[in-house]
Amino acid sequence: MVADMLTRELTAEQISLLNDLIHSATTHTINTIAICIARASADRYIGDFALLAHKLMDMENLNVLFALARMEDRIYLVARSRLPEVNVGEIAAVFGGGGHSSAASATIKDLTMIQVEEELFRILQSWINPGRQARNLMSSPVISVPPERNLHEAADLLTRYNINAAPVVDGERLVGILSRQMIDKGIYHGLEAVDVRDFMSTEFSSVTPDASLIEIQEHIVDRQQRLLPVVEGEKVVGVITRKDLLNVLLNDPSRIPSYLYEPVHTTGDKRRKNVSNIMAEQLPRPVNELLQAAGRVAEKRNYKAYAVGGFIRDLVLRRPNLDIDIVVEGDGIEFAKDFAEIYGARVRSYKKFGTAVIIFPDGFKIDVATARLEYYEYPAALPTVELSSLKLDLYRRDFTMNTLAVELDPARFGQLIDYFGTQRDFKEKAIRVLHNYSFVEDPTRVFRAIRYEQRLGFRIGKHTSNLILNAVKMNLLVHLSGRRLTNELKLILSEENPAPAIRRMHEYDLLPFLHADITYSPPMARLLEEIRSVLAWFNLSFIGNGCDRWLVYLLALADPLSSEGLEEFCSRMEFSPRIRSWLVEGRARAISIAQRFYRNQDLKPSEIYHLLEALNQEWLLFIMAKTEQEETRRAISLYFRNLKEVRPKLRGRDLKDMGITPGPVYREILNGLLDGRLNGELSSREEEVQFVRKRFMEASNR
Prior knowledge:
Elements: H1 2-5, H2 12-24, E1 26-30, E2 33-42, H3 49-60, E3 64-71, E4 74-81, H4 88-94, E5 98-99, E6 103-109, H5 113-127, H6 134-137, H7 151-161, E7 165-170, E8 173-179, H8 180-188, H9 213-222, E9 227-232, E10 235-241, H10 242-251, H11 276-282, H12 285-300, E11 304-308, H13 310-316, E12 324-329, H14 332-343, E13 346-350, E14 355-359, E15 365-370, E16 372-375, E17 384-387, H15 390-395, E18 405-407, E19 416-417, H16 422-428, E20 430-431, H17 438-441, H18 445-456, E21 459-460, H19 462-473, H20 482-493, H21 499-507, H22 522-541, H23 549-558, H24 563-573, H25 577-599, H26 605-612, H27 617-626, H28 630-643, H29 652-657, H30 665-678, H31 685-701
Parallel strand pairs: 2-3, 12-15, 20-21
Antiparallel strand pairs: 1-2, 3-4, 4-6, 5-6, 7-8, 9-10, 11-12, 11-18, 13-14, 14-15, 16-17, 18-19
Helix pairs in contact: 2-3, 7-8, 18-20, 18-21, 20-23, 22-23, 22-27, 23-27, 24-25, 26-28, 26-30, 27-28
């Protein structure tokens, strides 16, 4: 009251600030309440800002005012309210300020004016007593689909009631959401007789009848859930659609999130993210320069070029990956030719798919694809390709984590594009498919999900996990060719530690698709762990002498199989003749060697050498992990460390120079020299010469 009666002269600076407030004042209707927000700025601090806010309140006859002023390096907030629905003291407290319900203030550091405004809008929508709740927006009674109905029956129900989505309700319990798009895709693949429960979405949100509008908006807009069930207890009492929310937003534009009408690609809180700094930090400089050059080449042809897929996934996660994929909105092959010409590279193109590989003089490669979409004629078929846009090109990919893209255009270089909420999935460490028929169209994605899960330390999302179980239940993996199965299995077994992935394959009942007798058991788990230890020892002891680690783990998977089962396994996986013979014949040799070691543990080094040289190092490492005999382990270790590379100094030409007539005797002599070396009986060239003269030349003279 005293403040209302005081008359105070304003300085020229205060009048200028008040003028800014008057001209910037904008009224927003938030939860049916008119809120005025005014902004001003000054290069230096100007006192009595609260007085200016009070004058503006009186001049414009406002009920609620939030005045913001940027002065020096701070933002000053002054809030006034004449309505009980708006407690400005509580709102100012969020910014670190204080006051009471009708007058409050705050001083804010380290935020820009725009950031403060955005945060203020978010708080206002949450804190102001909402004028609308879920019960005011929902449609009721609910049209639902029982989970035991098939897709054909569900399609009839949605058509009858002219709706595009419905909750799936078991009794009174909400168990999923089904959309017309899911139904149409299933019927396209000939699955109209399959139960709704197998393809409904099981990852969804619901709200209670008293949920606020901001909460509803978060689920439908931010999380892109087209149908939001309203649940009381366990009973579904209503549904809210995107159209229901849109009608409210159009009547209250202040509620519409800015990213819905700003020309940006990403969603969620990180809607404007440029990763050019990460690219400069993570990528070798020549690679970063190549990507910048790609943007310039595309610009000259009036194309758009984007780096996409796993390369961007690992870039954002800060994991090493230089397998670069570029998608071009334009002719990808022509782009590749232009790019290659600049760097003296060559191009290998595939016109049928609109793809090309640029191979640089140093062997570095970049894969280029024309933006395209794919569709599948039947489950597990290879895709049919059509030209498309970047968004549809990304939509054809397997998981959300592989749908990130980065603009290479010079003006927007490094701008991250996230159409499908990948950044949210990264934050939650979740692996999710893009659509419900992902595993129907390409069942190999099941193995990829498991591989990514273990490599990245993520977890397969609940709904994606259910879809994997459905694919197994429907026997979809039977349609996969052995070659495609082998490719996926090889990638899993080539991981640093494939044991957790094999365990997950067991949990999803995938191992029988390789062979009915392959299973994950305690002995299998112990064997896999032993293999990991043996490989670690081998890699540390013999740096540069790499082995095909996936083959060692393959032997572990095949270990429980009988001879007939091993043949069946080779046929199912369509192994090459080389791998087939290596498995079958190698097993016979390995069994023979194990028996020999078991019968006679006191073998000379030369005997150990001749026993083990018949097997390659992958088999030997497997035996080393498999055996329970310490003597066998020591013998294999001795072979790798001391025996494998032993060779006589003398060669055939040396024997000829010594006057020995060439013939079968040469093999006998060289074997004798090798045994002498292995057993430590010969250590120099001179000793070898004496050995030959005494053992063979003197004997022949006698």
